[in-house]
Design a protein that fits this description.
Layout: E1 5-12, H1 16-27, E2 32-36, E3 50-52, H2 53-59, E4 66-76, E5 82-92, H3 94-107, E6 111-114, E7 117-122, E8 125-130, E9 133-144, H4 151-155, E10 163-172, E11 180-183, E12 192-198, E13 201-208, H5 216-227, E14 234-243, E15 252-253, E16 256-258, H6 274-294, H7 303-306, H8 347-354, E17 363-367, E18 370-373, H9 375-379
Helix pairs in contact: 1-3, 1-6
Length: 381
């Protein structure tokens, strides 16, 4: 059997979460390896690419990764009403942004290997495979950043089952659009449709809950017809699952941390996952670097005290205890009511509240992070 390569941190996945974790850990002095099963970081794109303005500075998005600035959002409700509101943000070039984060990780000292898939973990050793090539690594910490159907999450019993499914096309626009468009329709069951312009083209897509009767392909065809966008205008097809069940029960199990979509950290109303991915990755990487430093001679602490509970006791696997010092990743809103299948019809109102629009059918905004359904809305009209 081949000898396992020894390192401090193995990050599985080179998306925003994985690259952010790798960069933070490497900057803290850890020896980091990032493996990405795709042969090119950032491709294929599986994202609608819109990011609100308040997150642009937080994510430190360079101008070259911005496809188009946005200053207004149009929301079309199921009853035909149109609500326009000033909303600042941008549509990213996600492929460029992902590569930008991977470059930062490498510049910080992390090693990148593309085209490699994490196959299994046995007694702390991870088997990697690329075609007919195999390698084994032994890492003190494993960071699962490999998306909603995470292999690493499966290793620790944290697989997700609650998704909406997205179908999207990139189309050539007949004329430029200056604002984003969001559509709610009974056909987009459990989700919504969108048009996010990016210069000469736009991302047009839908996200629907297939468990409640949503059909992504039919919904996307209907939206394109509604917008007058023929098949001849399509220059690319995208799609994929979006986790909407909230954070997984256990963000840390033993020496395994989950971040980004692998941890269920997408926004359950809008589906946005870029900001939670970057933030959770940064927090995980910082905590891991502290933990690794604590195991080296001359450094106080240990892996279990630095990547564990607030009182320093290592949480038992499967207990759902937090992964990071200070319970950073556990500070999250409770699961919004709209995630319950019986409340799917409330999603348009919650969307308007969450994006700062006017009160709609009793859905009100308490703060930028919390949404509350009033008693009137909960009881129905």
């Amino acid at each position: 059997m081949m000898q396992a390569e020894s390192l401090d941190v193995l990050v599985v996945g080179a998306g925003p979460a994985g690259s952010s974790a790798a960069r933070a850990a490497a900057r803290g002095g850890a020896r980091v390896l990032v493996v990405e099963k795709r042969r090119q970081v950032g491709l294929p794109v599986q994202c609608a690419e819109f990011v609100p303005q308040q997150l642009i500075h937080l994510l430190q998005v360079p101008p070259r990764c911005i496809a188009q600035q946005i200053r207004q959002m149009r929301t079309v409700l199921p009853d035909g009403r149109i609500i326009d509101k000033p909303v600042r943000g941008c549509v990213l070039d996600r492929a460029l942004f992902d590569r930008h984060l991977a470059v930062l990780a490498r510049q910080a000292g992390a090693e990148l290997r593309v085209g490699w898939t994490a196959i299994e973990c046995n007694a702390g050793e991870v088997l990697l495979r690329r075609g007919h090539q195999e390698a084994r690594v032994q890492a003190q910490v494993i960071v699962g950043a490999d998306g909603p159907h995470s292999t690493v999450a499966q290793w620790v019993g944290q697989s997700q089952t609650d998704f909406v499914h997205g179908a999207e096309v990139e189309v050539v626009l007949p004329e430029p659009r200056e604002y984003t468009e969001v559509y709610f329709d009974p056909l987009y069951r459990g989700g919504y449709g969108w048009l996010f312009p990016k210069g000469e083209t736009a991302n047009v897509g839908v996200a629907v809950n297939v468990r409640t009767g949503g059909r992504p392909g039919a919904a996307l065809d209907q939206l394109c017809d509604r917008l007058g966008l023929p098949p001849a205008a399509v220059v690319g097809h995208l799609g994929g699952p979006v986790p909407v069940g909230g954070p997984v029960a256990c963000l840390r199990d033993g020496n395994v941390l989950l971040v980004g979509d692998a941890a269920g950290l997408a926004h359950p109303i809008t589906g946005g996952g870029i900001a939670p991915a970057v933030i959770s990755g940064q927090l995980a990487g910082q905590a891991v670097a502290q933990a690794i430093a604590g195991r080296r001679p001359g450094c106080a602490g240990s892996l279990s005290t630095r990547v564990g509970s607030d009182d320093g006791r290592p949480p038992a696997p499967g207990t759902g205890q937090p992964a990071l010092p200070g319970r950073a990743l556990e500070r999250r809103p409770s699961r919004p009511e709209c995630c319950r299948r019986r409340d799917l019809d409330r999603i348009p109102g919650l969307w308007l509240a969450e994006t700062g629009h006017i009160n709609y059918k009793g859905a009100t905004m308490e703060s930028p992070q919390h949404v509350q359904i009033s008693m009137a809305a909960a009881k129905g009209p």
